[in-house]
User: Fold these one by one.
Assistant:
Number 1:
Amino acid sequence: MKPLLNAVERLGRGSIFLAKTLRVLPKLLPRFGLVIHQLHSVGVQTLLIIVVAGLFVGMVLALQLYYTLSTFGAEDTLGMLVDLSLVRELGPVVAALLFAGRAGSALTAEIGLMKATEQLSGLEMMAVDPVERIIAPRFLAGFIAMPLLAAIFSAVGILGGYAVGVDLLRVDAGAFWSQIQAKVDFSEDVLNGVIKSFVFGFVVTWIALFEGHDCIPTSEGVARATTRTVVHSSLAVLALDFVLTAIMYN
Amino acid sequence: MTQALVQIRGLHFSRGDKKIFDGIDMDITVGRITAVMGPSGTGKTTLLKLIGGQLKPDAGEIRVDGENVHALPRARLYQLRKKMGMLFQSGALLTDLSVFDNIAFPLREHTDLSDSMIRTLVLMKLAAVGLAGAHRLMPSELSGGMARRVALARALALDPMMIMYDEPFTGQDPISLGVLVKLIRDTNATLGLTSILVSHDVAETLSIADDVKIISGGKVIADGSKEDIQRSDSPWVRQFIDGLADGPVPFHYPGEPLERLLLEDAG
């Protein structure tokens, strides 16, 4: 019973933390430079892992699908299947998992260490609201960066699929692109993927920032919080993906 | 008649089951350096956080400059905090900003001063703590003593009426210690500040304090001028001031007697 109560209590504190963060977001408009600075550390610095992972995921998808499709003589649909797999599912989900591991853990460690070294208390005593100055810009940056990273992941994945499918396995290039053009619907497939990545960006960044802000301010406490961020974010992404997919595609 | 800048009345504060303050009354007189001393874990830092409004008391009232800190709405509390500098034990410098930017930080947040004016003010504050030449360094390049001097310059940036020092002497070499003692004394005198100095370094603290409060067991066990405290014959005060291993604060942690513990093992 006690673990359940603790979980509910943490969820409550997390919700209050989120409400405080959302409330100060309008104040960031005149100071958008703070968000851009964070977009660099949350987004740009996550780019390499996203590009490399996207490339390999696309290449593996093309390989796997080609051998299945070729048994039915349906190799020409390879581009469409790679694209659909990426924009509907793998792009948002794998990008979010990588985002949680790279940017989420870094956010938790950064905020946790700022708490442990009294930097957050120092801000409060300088009459500067840490939620407004530290938390909110990172939250907005995570929310903006995640869909962009997912889009880049999918785009690079399609190029990886093209490289393997067309250049290596000799699928017709025209068929590869025309199948994508004909069968991938913008609102049904692409937009739903974008919505997913916005939701994942919101949840992962929220969890990462809350864990950092709520951690026990010791080295062990920060380490535990960082682990919790990766575990909870990954589980949340996978569970939400199921729920969103069920809603979007009935 | 002396005027109290900080008035604490009937302060109760607990962490979980542990009572930190059990009905404390205290006045911090304007323009003086008041040392708050006591053994480790007695809640000295907690007291500073209560005065700064970072923690809420279970009961009682803290007034700073006539305002009830914990009854103030957030905006007014932040206005009050601009008049209260605080020097944290770790320095609490923002690690992603240079020394210059750390001191410029409160000025940029709270004033509309031009960049050139901010530069002049920052360099003046840094010169006051002897570190103008270090303005380009990052916090990771500073020694512990230098970090505290930079933090002091930052605390002075908005020209506060009072400064709270949290264990400023802990872990300092003799030279850094001498510099910090001099800085605390000189800034208080030249800028007409009121200082609250939390420490358990008896010799250094008594060398600059005007008034001394000693806290132990959730109560103020001694309160008076430095001379009163040095003359005190209270066993609590004597044990703390003279650094005695045993006394009212026992050497042995309370628990079952050793004989019984040994018999338990044998049985």
Number 2:
Amino acid sequence: MKRLLGEARMADMRTVLSIRGAERRYRADHAALAGADLDLQAGRITALLGPSGSGKSTLLRAIAGLERLEAGSIRLGDTIWNDARTHVPPEARRVGMVFQDYALFPHMTALANVAFGLSGPDKQARAMTQLEAAELGHKAKAYPHELSGGEQQRVALARALAPEPAVVLLDEPFSGLDRRLRGELRERTVDTLRAAGTTALIVTHDAEEAMAVADQLALMDGGRVIQTGAPDEVWMSPVSATAAKLLGDVEIIEASVTGGQAETPFGPVDANGFEDDQPVSVLIRPRAFTLSLKPEGEYTITRRRSAGPHLTHRFASEAGEWTAQTPAPSPIQEGDRVSVELDPVYVRVVAA
Amino acid sequence: MPGRATSLAILAATLCAAPILAVVWIGLSGETGDYLRHLAGTRLPTYLLTSALVGLIAAGGAGLIGTGLGWLMARTEFTGRRTLGWILILPLAVPAYVAAYAWLDLSAAGGPLHAATGGLFPTIRGSWGAGLMFALVLYPYVYLLARNTFSSQSADAYNAARTLGAGPMSAFSRTSLPMARPAIAAGLALVVMESLADYGTVSHLGAPTLSIGLIRAWSGAGSLVDAARLSLVLVFIAMLVFGLERAQRRRARSVNAAGRHKPSPRIRLSGLPALGALTACLLPLTLGMLIPLGRLVWLAAHTETAPGLVAASWHSLSLAGITALIAAALGLATAYALRSRTAIATLAARAAGLGYAVPGAVAAVGVIAILSGTQSLLDPAWRSVTGEVFPILLTGTGAALVFAYLSRFAAAAISPAETALARVTPSLDGAARTLGASRGQRVWHIHWPLIVAGVTSAGLLVFVEVLKELPATMILRPFNYDTLAIIAHNFASDERLGEAALPSLLIPLVALLPMIFVARYLSRQDP
Amino acid sequence: MKPVKFFAFAASLAVAACSQPADEASETAQVVNVYSARHYSSDAAIYAAFTEETGIEVNLVSANGDQLIERVRADGERSPADVIITVDAARLHRAEEAGLFAQTDFSDLTDTVPANLIDPEGYWVSFAKRSRVIAWSNTRVQPGEITSYEDLADPQWQGRICVRGSGNAYNQSLLASLVAHLGEESAEAWAQAIVDNMARDPQGGDRTQINGIAAGECDVAITNHYYYAMMVNSDDPAAQAAAAQVTLFFPNQETTGAHVNVSGAGIAMNAPHPDNARALIDFFFSDTAQRAFAEMTNEIPVRTDVSWENPTLAAMLPFNEDDLNVSDLGDHNETAQRIFDRVGWQ
């Protein structure tokens, strides 16, 4: 039932929360947020991906009201949370937040933690329902230190969701967990968020994780949101070298445009509408390279590494050295000579 | 498991407990008449009721002031905060009876406050007055411990509460405060015990607590045994209070277990809130220290300066300094011994803490009993060799004084050290070991930076306590050996407040010296 | 490093402190060890004069009387105490009962000191007196309204009396004297009446009570005579002004005499320097010492043939003293304490 509701909301793509020109500096010379813009759509999960220090946690805390903006605005629908004059305190915002260390109240039981944000006579019961939904009903009386890391995370999520917030913010919610548990919990969290039909923002520095959970992906760097869009779309069409690097390994070749084409050592590629003589960067994902064994091949394999379902081959010529991702198994060994072809699907030309 | 160092610490803690155990023994073994029965039928209910009232008011007041200031100092930033951080401890150096003498003098009928307000200003007296005095001069116990806790507390819990709909006050009272409760409880335990063991303040302000009954049994009825018996009640209350505090502390372990600590940014206050914070700091400082000492100084202008203050200052400073160093070391050693989790270590540490419970005069009797007992014990052997009486080596020496102080104030040294050492988790030790750190390196490079604040706080508390300690100093001191507290008390008890002014003023001034030293040392440690 | 220095210093202090009694044992310097419950400036002056005159150094420990008794008792035969001084008859009595005093022949003092101030068995002598008297408001009490302690029990004083707490030795000794004179029952009735007549719960010291009269909170107070003298002789105008509104009255002049308590001394049972001790006690009766008591602490010297300058004190003298032997006060001290407990005198 709830799930249907969530999907219905997803369909209308209504913007719930909009952030414009958010600025916040901790030191005079360093802006944590330097004019960030972001929209969150109703019922959708947005992943905010960025390297550490990019300002993503600050943006999250600003949305929660835990940081004051120096400039810019945050609105929930028609309600202004932040602008030049306004700063709505966190408790009046109806945001749910899952902290990186979960911030469970150590002196309260799991149930009391979940009930914290609730009011009314039935709050215990509602908290219990929430806890049971997280399959933690049997741990209701346990204190946080008696719970495992994964259980703590689930209690934290249940606590954030219990008051039915307008937006749920998750700050690196899986970073403290081991890899296996992380994948499992990630799925679980996404399911929970979808079931609740909540608008959610998840901050992470893990590209794989971001793409796995997100309906919408937002890339952040230097205190700005540099690109937003569906994960596939962003992955396929990064707007800059920086954006591309955030999402995975990429080879960057500086080139200039001639006749609508950018020249690379592997032949010309479509210049993506850039005009002649403009300096551009050609972004090539490692999987764009197709290597073929050829005794007279132009390139020599300098390194071969196995990585399970695929391999990475490092290959070099006088022009340079690059990395290719090739499907396993592969007969190509270190020292072999190869020829290289480029699959244009995984190549993108952006402004230098 | 307990190694040689641990055994030594246990031995030291046991030594500290010995005087109190001696008092207990005097109470249980001595002959007694029907005085206690008489007391039970007459004043005992009043004594108990007043004790409860005074203890509650002192705890409530000190809790409020100490917690509030601790939070302000730990979590906010405003002009003057750094300086105030240490100044706020100073009222602890004002003996409660000095504050009481000054305040009663100011506010009683005929006093300037009474006259200036046409009698509207209430006379500071009775249980309320005494409780208030204790709150004003003892709040630093709570303040110090609360400040440490608030500054090491992760802000996330508070923030989480805010995002869950709790306003700033509500979030504070539902998360930060309960998380700080063990530390606050530890401070309050000291406040309550010191209030209940006090004699000078309550007798002057007319608040008949149990210590009054106890001293009366001794001085009025001449029965030390009855006094010792009554002090059993105080020892029992102390065990109860410290027991409650332990229970809080056990929960503290769970508080620290969950969540990683993130340094939380201070809230920067300016304008009106900053002014409010400043006022909040200055108010208890003014009431607990500036007004009473100011009154004394004003009176001093009309009297001659008492002689011997330089020597007394030196005596006070050296006694307090030496005791503080030993106490800090003892507290730390005991805290390490407690880590061994052996029953004997726990027992010794808890017993050592009981010295706080008993009025100083009675505790001093325990010290005398132990010292003279030791001398008597050595006497036969000495006689058989030399043919003479064993010389008086212990009573009336500086060593005896230090011993008495340690037995009385060990609790103030052990508690903070224990709290501090709790920050050194086994995994830290493990990490250091895997990195090849020797035991000494671990203690110096890992433990010390983490515990230095707690340990120096402990030393400071003991330092200040010794500065103002009176009954044990009086009776155990060497010949011709005055301390500031003794001179102040002699004049004050003789109702020569003017002459008492300068020595009273010198006590906090002398206390300032180590505070500045400690503050500078700690700020160097704290990047 | 600094800690090392500190510990070295600590050790040296401990050694210095420990070695002090050892020096005494060497007997090279003439000393007398005094355990005194008095802590007045007069005494420091007297000790200085004593040393000047005799060459005997005075070593002093002063503390509360009960504590001193306990320390001497516990140290037993190794106690260094030569002279034990208390400020209250009950404490002298208690020290005597604890066997701390050596019997001494004080008969040579009887020429100048009244017999009731010397212990009949020769354990101690008194060298200065204090009287517990009545103070009243110049405006609200007429002379003649009160003549005795007993008068204060009259219901007409209801809500008009200020007095300090009963934990204080002065009140205990006053009531002990009433027990001696009137019997326990009447003394208890008197104490009960005083409690009923109190203007406020007991608080503060004797000066607080005099200030209470000056401020109009009460009309009558019970105080030691020298607190009043101290206020009159004070440099503080406020204290002088308060004293000026109050009259000091020595009661029971027609009957038992005003209640008197003493400062007294005895030679310790195991005194290492008994001769020096005797010399010091004799010195307390010297002109110098007697004069110091009158001039510096407003106490009443036991010798009447010594001249001194203190107009305030002189104006109070002479008066009829209660000549009860002060050891009787000691005997009745516990009874007095129990009466206070029963009548609820805080």
Number 3:
Amino acid sequence: MKVPLTWLDEFIDLPTRDPEQIESALAQLGHEVDEIARLDATFEGVVVGRVEEVGPHPNADRIRFCRVNDGSAVHDVVCGAWNFEAGAIVAYARVGSRLGLDTDNPFELTAKELRGVTSNGMIASAAELALGEDQEGILVLNELGLATDQDLGRDLEDLLPYPDLVFDITITPNRGDCMSVLGLARELAAFWNIAVREPKVDLKTSGKPIGFSVEVQDREACPRFAAREVAEITVGASPLWMQMRLTAAGQRPISNVVDVSNYVMLEIGHPIHTFDAQTIEGEQLVIRRAKEGERLKTLDGQDRELDPADIVVCGQEEVLALAGVMGGESTEVSGSTNRVLIEAAHWDPPSILLTSHRLGLRSEASSRFERGVDPNLPDLATARAAELIAGAGGGSVKPGAVDVYSKPIKPRIVKLNATQVSRLLGPEPDLGDSADYLRRLGFGIEKVADDLLLVSVPTRRPDVTRPADVVEEIARMHGFDSFADRLRRGNNGALKPEQLGARRLAAVMVGAGFCEAQTLSFIGQSDLDRLRLPDSDHRRIGITVNNPLREEEGTMRTTLIPGLLKALVTNVGRSTNNVALFETGSVFFRAPDRDDPRIPDQPNMLGFAAIGAMGSAGINGSARPVDIYTATGIADLISGSFGLAIEIIQDQTPMLHPGRGAGIHLDNGVRIGFVGELHPAIARDLGLAERVIVGEFETAPLLASRDDWSIVEVSEFPSAVFDLAFVVAESVSAGSLVATVEESAGREIEAVEVFDEFRGPSLGEGKKSLAVRIDLRALDRTLTDEELVPIRGTIVEAVAEQLGGILRGTQ
Amino acid sequence: MDLSTIDSLLATAPGQIAGAADLETLDQLESVLVGRRSPIAELRKGLGQADPQDRPRLGQALKAAAETINEQLDARRVVLESAAEEALLESDRVDVTLPAATPARGTHHLITQTMEEVTDIFRSLGYQIESGPEIEIAYYNFDALNTPLTHPSRFQSDTMYVESFDAEARTGGDELLLRTQTSPMQARYMEANPPPVHIVVPGRVFRTDTWDATHSPVFHQIEGLAVDTDITFGDLKGTLAHFALEFFGPSAKTRFMPNFFPFTEPSAEMHVWFNDGWLELLGCGMVDPNVFDAVGYNSEEVTGFAFGMGVERLAMVKHGIQDIRHLFENDLRILGQFR
């Protein structure tokens, strides 16, 4: 809402014109000023003149020769405009006057010869004075209602609202009453405790009384419908002062009828609709909801299908206007209109909101109706509009008015006791001060007991219905910054175990060299297709978004992998070739949540993806690019960090390389996720030429695993280390060999590690050698050779029995 | 026995020892001067044939000569050894500014860091961290928060709705949506826990906003809620002003101006003075009595305050980030700057 200070002057005498003070007053009241614009004349030395004579130029057809009286002398002026004759009161820019002061090239007028005739100055157009867009004709000040013969010789600046300040203010959705100059004037008056000059209309009427009748069929949709009629008008430009105010307030002047509608709306806050009265057959209007299948061609030329929820203004048959939203083309005021019906009605706010949203028609009118307009304003609104239209368009207001208002809406009474104020605001302000604040805002106050007020809420404030709402009024008048600060403490700031775990998990990944990513929660069906998930995969069909921003973001993610892969592609595309990312976040499945079946299951996952090398090897080394063992290493790192026993089981995980992928299993066998190399074909689809590793785990089992744990003593005795190499079948995994050794070696086992894998003709077809280093240590003694021999024997026997492995060199 | 050999030996040895340029030469010299075939060793062997009366004197003279030479050898050895060590180290010298073997450096995302920074400030005040679901029912996102069915924020132009995951047809409060705020957790938490309440709720939220420098359809919020029998507007202000000081530093000033939110009354917006300007930072207010009624609290007995702040906005303000897309593109050149 843009409010010129000179317009506010119509209603209040502000104690200051300091923009900062006014801005800060508005801010305290909750009206945020986004911008303050300064308006001033862009010219100097332009005066009011009268054209005494106008005649042809001796040497040119397109320009005329004029003599202009500036009150003290008569000057020869050549003029190219044709929209005036002798007697016109004009803006005369004398020799020596300056124009274009707001531009980079201001200029001073000099006497100038035009086709053999000296022109001493010029007659200015609106565009030349930056007062409007018109550059065809000159400003005819008497036609624009700005000056008369009496003003001859006066500085034009003095007749214009200069200098002015325009406050651009954001009005919150609850304050429809403040979407007007009068509404904001009331607020400022309350702030400074000054009087408001209430708008009054002394309407002069003539001719036959208004003949229109209105039937309101839906009282809920339209609690009040008021109208007046103005006859014998001429549609043309509105007075310059009105055009300037509208322009300052951000509205483009269009014609006197349209401008008056906008003017009244901006001035007192009630939207006005004007019909060309002649186009309404039978002078009858019906207010109702639209019927199924009804259509209306609106002012913007669109033929629209109506919804039974829409409120419409109808003639005898057809729909004429969408109430509160937009008028119809058939009844639009045009250049040939000479009779207008001025409507100001009170519409049901939610209905207006739904209609304007459904049709995408947000207008100045609908934004006011949505917020709520004073139901007791229509009579004033139609009177004010009629007065202005008659003034601007030379018409006459017909006596009488339409006003269908069967159940007048009265001020609401809210009971407010002292405790209701103090429990929200504290000891200050007391009830006396509170009453004073409310009175200044125009609320009626009746003190019925020492600690009880009856507050009568003006009907322009539908947002105030309860004690809490009244308390807010008191608080903003008191000033939010006037309340004493108090620090409020709780008593439970510790992290819960799973919150600690989540932080540890992220720290582990960051420590391992992964950067945390934030990817969108949406994916597209094509992202899932690309991952080659089988149809039976539970991630294959996600929950779809009804109104996605983009088709390719139409599904809630069922896995973090697509988002992470997209981020890899982005980075590689920008020549960052070594990328390691992780993310923790929700994925969404078509199944009920375990705790709240009303919402879908949305477990938290950890995902990672990497390409290229991790870290740099330095001058003497070569960095190892990531591969499956980096991926399984991350699984080990995470499980180790949470003290969780996991088993990595090679399997055929969808989206992974068929020979380089594994499931991560808890010791109870439950599979909590996977790690591995991305299927090379998928990487190729994405344009990633190197090996890509990915992994994804459900975090709940990790975070739940950090139970209380106790320290395990370490031995102070030396360890016994020996190596064994076994020849096994290809199908025997290193992991199963390690497991077998660990199980069979007894309680003194400290570590088992495969340190060599070898294949060769000496071993035979389908065989390989796996060498393990076995580290044994006892808590209470140094292990002797005598003890080691049987342990070694047990291990060899177990490997032979369980895995068919034979000690290398003995086969 | 003629000791003149010894005398000449003692006279020439210092020069020879000092002349030994390396340890090898010194070792050879040692063997020549005091080794088994050295003149001193030879004379010692002949000591048995010497006059018994002279033997002690001669013996002592030989021993003293050997000691003297040995001392000189040892001194020289220390010098040569340390020189050899230095030479060895010198030959091992490298240019330490050549590329290092650097472990990969991971980073926590700035959004995570900011969420932890904010929630830790409130934890230090005794507020517990809670979290809630991202796909939510409209009841918790809107109805329970005093936001009627006709409120514009419920329209598809503001809120993203998702299909029903089960066969149920859903309307009104049962509709499934992507939560537009972390506020639904206010209602969920109060339904499940009696007062007093002191919680903060960080999390991801969604709006039908197209991407531009300051808008993203996915962003993060931190909700706060305090409910007790004695909470006033001053508690709201004092607590949030304390937060601003902790987060922005001791020069942060705050001011509060009225605003409008359906679930608070009075409602306010906090502005913070940072980098020479007032910034709109967060919305807050006293919990609307309708919210208490919806969750089964007695609005005559308890009062409370609630606030909600945008994590991205906080991070962008604090770190001079001009475009929110930097936070979601996952460009390592940006992620690497987080620390």
Number 4:
Amino acid sequence: MSRIIVITSGKGGVGKTTTTANLGMALARRNRRVAVIDADFGLRNLDLLLGLENRVVYTAVDFLAGQCRLEQALVKDKRHPNLVLLPAAQNRTKDAVKPDQMKKLAAALAKVYEYILVDCPAGIESGFQNAIAAAQEALIVTTPEIAAVRDADRVVGLLEANSIKQIHLIINRIRPAMVQANDMMSVEDVKEILAVPLIGVVPEDEKVIVSTNKGEPLVLSETPSMAGNAFDNIARRLEGEKVEFLDLTPTHDGFFSKLKKVLNTKLF
Amino acid sequence: MTDSPSSSVPIVPQESADLDRDQQVRLKSEGGKLLLLLPPEGDGGEENPAAVFNWEEVWQQLKQRLDAGDRFWQPETVVHLIARDRLLDGRQLQAIADALTEAQLRLKRVYTSRRQTAVAAATAGYSVEQQSSITHLNQSSQESGQVMAEPLYLETTLRSGADIQHNGTVVLLGDVNPGGTITAEGDILVWGRLRGVAHAGSKGNTRCLIMALQMEPTQLRIADFVARAPETPLTDYYPEVAYVTPQGSIHIVRASDFSRSRGEG
């Protein structure tokens, strides 16, 4: 039984595409057959983040128009054979596709792939309606800002109205030091408003920018990073594993924490 | 927020557009069956899409009402759809029937004043009652008369963008998030956090009340009065009641003190 999951947020720029790319890759590394669909017709980005831009020949619209077979439109990942990308058309707009067609598309992919991740465009217009049409589950990405949380709240309401009841929350780009200084909404603040079960907290990490520009998802990186770990943990939680949330308390170098470190190193 | 006097200014009455939009999807039990009333479409839809609900909005309201109240319906209850002058095609009728089936309700009969809707409903196998639009007009004017509708009970979280309007009292078991709105002709009772906008006595009754377990509203309105929450958030919250004082401003008192202060006032 394959799972069709839409990654959505309402607001733009909170990390939907980054999340899709990293989760897709993390699941593929766990030997799952994964298809990621870019549903952002006209403003496609997912191929860039996966570093697959130069391999795109056909797009989802070409397949729906009957100009190619589905297998031709799918772009195999260069690093992982388990991961494929269904790119969006860049020369068309959101209205080029209808919700029914998205359902058809997802159903066709569901025959082969275990996970189908749909990268939803920002907004709640037709692009959003298309992206959620086929989904059974949703991951809401938000940053700890009131505008992002407000939009996420609206989107949760719309998902519920569309009978998508399995909704999980990812809080992205949190800065533990700012939370501690009371300058940023905390995980609890966001959870209290949205009342949706949390599946991951991703800290702000400069490496994300680097990995985005390189087209190398962070979860592939040799050097471990906080954000990469967080995405990997989300993939494991999706798989049903119980994983502790990362300890995001800022590394303040107070006297006691230094003392603790010294004691710990002495002991081992 | 307790006992803090709030600045109040009368709202400019919004006439026409508001009147058209103040009827939402409603579920009403009557004689052992459930009536599903759709908001009328009217004539304004083509020139001014903002004045009436489109299908998407109607659909969302329906889903919201079904999700928010399903604890109270007996399985297999028969539903009569009062479509009024709303144009429904076969697909939309099917969507409504499916949503009802999901809530274990059965669509049996469709009342409509539109020929196309009647044909679609008959094709789908429901019994149809086609009324002329004249009787529909009479009906709707009767409904917007003086008698308030029975209270609307909802069990849900009202999220940003959700907008509940009811010509009676609204009881909500759950939170109103920022960006959510309740407009009621009667009182508003929120058994949860009220962080959105609540407008009680929307037809001008200044004796209406707004009650919440945790009162942190974006804005409170009672009849023509408006109040904002204090700029600095409170640390402790108690169940509170908002009312209009004889001096003409909205006050908020702790629920435990409310009946006493009323007696004195």
